[in-house]
User: What shape does this take?
Amino acid sequence: MLELIQKVLNEYDKVFLIADKSVYAGSDWERFCNVIQAMEKKPEQGELFKKVLLKKILLIIEEGVEYDLSFPHVVLSHQETWDLWKLYMTYEFSDRFSVFPDGGQYGTVFGYSDAGILTEQEAVMAILGYRKGIEDGQITL
Assistant: This one.
């Protein structure tokens, strides 16, 4: 499993683990998907999204999780997902490998959106690790 992470971190700027327990109505994953889908539909943002973001992000998804975004992805079994989650929790070795939260017990970046400090699009850009918004055409890490 460690070899998988090492390989994908060499190829992608950000890798996200999406476990079945992270997917529920109102979850950060659902909100993330909604913002990404809205960005893809806007002509000026959609082109930049395809040229820049799609080449830098990989999702590792547990089997059974519905997925309809344009990001490249890998589907893992429940056991493989669990092993990867344990590896992440044991080492937390990179800010480029992230796990979507599985509950509301901890604050997340979408809390800033709920409080009106960030827009949902700014929250997604923060999750993706970008300092500037996609609107100005200058996405930077």
Q: What stands out?
A: Residues 28-41 form the longest helix (14 residues). The mean pLDDT is 81. The chain is about 45% helix and 15% strand.
